[in-house]
Amino acid sequence: MKELSGQVAVITGGSSGIGLGIARNLAKEGVKLVLAGMNLEKAQAVASSLEETGAEAIGVACDVTRREELEKLADVAFDAYGRVDILINNAGVGNVGSLHELKEDDWDWVINVNLKSIYLSCSVFIKRFLDFNESALIINTGSETCFGLNGRALGSMFPYVASKHGMLGLSEMIKRDYEEFGIRVSVLCPGPVATEIWNAERSRQVEYGSANDSNPKHGEILHYLGMDPDDVGRMTVDGIKDGDYYIITHENIGDLIEKRHSEAMAAVGKTKEWHRRNSVG
Predict the structure, then answer these.
(1) What is the DSSP string of 209-245?
(2) Does the active-site annotation cover 160?
(3) List 160, 178, 224, 245, catalytic entry
(4) In terms of C-beta distances under 8 Å and separation of at least 24 residues, what long-range contacts does 110-116 make, across chains too?
């Protein structure tokens, strides 16, 4: 397992939920932290609480949909520590509703926070990794929905699922094109986790419509079904040490992967049969 002490990690969405769970566990390994969140006071308070345990941590406000704010986040990290070893793109939001009733602002909000932000963040930090000739690890937080859909308990999340599928493809491209430069990628794919993502509407940026409180029943379901974020954090740190590409938190995700694989292979079988029947000569 890889030694992490002394490394530097930047975590977007780092002041709550999965991001905070990862931060706490990285802090135990001696990793220096830059935690980015929408609310500066909250990010700084979380950083201070980690410092009380002996960690080195900085809290920063950052809207991950804005390149200029991600550039400032990178400036803070490199100015404070001189390097970044681990970039964790964890900021995420979601909403629930039928596709035919979905507003364009809802779509843009989720896609920009969950997917466009990863493009922006990676482009900002990869340029610096290349300029400094540094190896680094990028972790992109996906979801079980990267691979398929479970039941309807948490409702229909059209832009969320689309964003997580896109994130997986983006991660695979980054892995293919930048691994030769020492930039590795991991994809964290959790199932339900007991976080406050159900109420992400409360911090929606004004350009995507008005901020609102979400249905508390969704929060009750998520906290009933969900894994402890600190357990996700422990699994993520183990995955970092082991050099894993996929970090999967829930066993049932294997069923989604197997279903998708078997359906795709069945289609390939039909394709082979079509070519056999229609071959000439």
Answers:
(1) -------HHHHHHHHHHPBPHHHHHHHHHHHHHHT-S
(2) yes
(3) 160
(4) 110/159, 110/160, 110/163, 111/159, 111/162, 111/163, 111/166, 112/65, 112/208, 113/64, 113/65, 114/159, 114/160, 114/163, 114/164, 114/167, 115/163, 115/166, 115/167, 115/170, 116/65
User: pLDDT 10s per residue in the chain (281 long)?
Assistant: 578 999 999 999 999 999 999 999 999 999 999 999 999 999 999 999 999 999 999 999 999 999 999 999 999 999 999 999 999 999 999 888 899 999 999 999 999 999 999 999 999 999 999 998 889 999 999 999 999 988 776 678 899 999 999 999 999 999 999 999 999 999 999 988 987 665 566 677 778 776 665 555 555 565 667 789 999 999 999 999 999 999 999 999 999 999 999 999 999 999 999 999 998 65
Task: Confirm whether pTM is higher than 0.90.
Answer: yes
Give the residue extent of every domain in the chain: 8-250, 254-281
Query: Can you name the CATH fold of 8-250?
Result: Rossmann fold (3.40.50)
Asked whether the beta carbons of 65 and 112 are under 8 A apart, the reply is yes
CB of 195 within 8 A of CB of 15? Answer: no
The three-state secondary structure class of 194 is: coil
